[in-house]
Amino acid sequence: MVDQALDGLYKDFEVMYSQVGRPSIPPERLLRALLIQGFYSVRSERQLMEQLDYNLLFRWFVGLGVDDPVWHPTTFTQNRERLLGQDISRKFFDQVLGQAREAGLLSSEHFTVDGTFIEAWAGQKSFRRKDGSDDPPGPGRNANADFRGEKRSNDTHASTTDPDARLRRKGGEGAKLVHHGQVLSENRHGLVVAAEVSRAEGNAEPEAAARLVARRGTTRAGTVGADKAYDQGYFVRVMRESGLTPHVAQDIRTYRGSMIDGRTTRHRGYRLSQRRRKRIEEFFGWMKTVGVLRKARHKGTRLVNWTFELAAAAYNLVRMRRLLWSPASSGV
Predict the structure, then answer these.
(1) pTM for this predicted structure
(2) Average of per-residue pLDDT across 320-326
(3) Phi then psi for 181, rounded to 5 degrees?
(4) How far is Cα of residue 134 from the mean position of the Cα atoms in its chain?
(5) pLDDT tens-place string over residues 225-252
(6) SS in 3 state form for the chain?
(7) What phi, psi does 172 have (nearest 5°)?
(8) Between vectors from CA 101 to CA 210 and to CA 283, what angle results, nearest 5°?
(9) 313 and 321 in contact (C-beta within 8 Å)?
(10) pLDDT confidence tier of residue 6, bands split at 50, 70 and 90
(11) Which of 53, 77, 50 shows the shortest CA–CA distance to 67?
């Protein structure tokens, strides 16, 4: 499946090859190595290079011979920037999704949208006043800092390490610097249809959901399930304008009440969507554990979005392998 997806990116890779200078790492091998990192939970690119040095399975998948030298981690990181410039993660994701669509694995009518926080590669001490009026924590690289009693918000403070990260709180946990990942999945097999990372601020969830729904690959009428955070007028209106019935969990805690009523909730399809929408958590769980994206390994929304889309493509590949496998096809 990876071979087929890479064949579809042949023209994009041709643009990335330079006609001058020393030969660089082929983009196909860069992408294969990054997929290995997601498939086998390799926590860093330095460790990835170490394992490529002795793991024959990894060498075979990437395309390295037994005696071929392995790249230096710094060289690998510098060459990875070329993939970022051509938006290869989005194109590779679309190629994998196209295979799922050809195999009849995708629903064209019923979807689910949800979001999650990805912890930023930045510490709390980097969240400083934008006007520079606060004092540094103290001497040394990692001096003690006490934020007790100090009012800090995204309006007045920003991270000096990752300016795109935002301080947000979820549930009963403490506030953390995070990025906001959004996913649209289909309800037949739980495959990811669209994914993106944005800044965790304002009305990010319903606005990102509207962009993801536009990428679902069909204009057929259908449904989209979501949790209480999406029970907002903007989201409900945009979904209906897109031809989708919003099957949103009702938020009756607010003074205004829910934006949907019994005309939607009385149908059996609404209850089914509410059960199915929880399958999107399977991707979030896989992405944060196996795909090692509980905490971002890079800085900036653009690069975190790139790795998030590649993780979504890797998850779809793993799911498709299981869905397309059958005892008859394997000779068992």
Answers:
(1) 0.89
(2) 85
(3) -95, 135
(4) 34
(5) 999 889 888 899 999 998 999 999 988 7
(6) CHHHHHHCCHHHHHHHCCCCCCCCCCHHHHHHHHHHHHHCCCCCHHHHHHHHHHCHHHHHHHCCCCCCCCCCHHHHHHHHHHHHHCCHHHHHHHHHHHHHHHCCCCCCCEEEEEEEEEECCCCHHHEEECCCCCCCCCCCCCCCCCCCCCCCCCCCEEECCCCCCEEECCCCCCCEEEEEEEEEEECCCCCEEEEEEECCCCCHHHHHHHHHHCCCCCCCCEEEEECHHHCCHHHHHHHHHCCEEEEECCCCCCCCCCCCCHHHHCCHHHHHHHHHHHHHHHHHHHHHHCCCCCECCCCCHHHHHHHHHHHHHHHHHHHHHHHHCCHHHHCC
(7) -90, 5
(8) 60
(9) no
(10) very high
(11) 53
**Exposure string (b/e) for 156-168, b if CB count within 10 Å is 16 or more?**
ebbbebbebbbbb
158 with 120: CB under 8 angstroms? no
Q: Which residue has the tokens 């300016």?
A: 163
Q: What is the spatial distance between Cα 113 and Cα 98, in angstroms, rounded to a whole number?
A: 20
Cα-Cα-Cα-Cα dihedral sign, residues 214, 117, 304, 151: positive
Distance CA 312, CA 118 (A): 14
Q: Are strands 222-226 and 110-119 parallel, antiparallel or unpaired?
A: parallel
Interacting residues of 203 by C-beta distance below 8 A, sequence separation 6+: 232, 234
Phi-psi region of 137 (alpha: psi -120 to 50; beta: other; left: phi over 0): alpha
R_g over Cα of the chain = 22
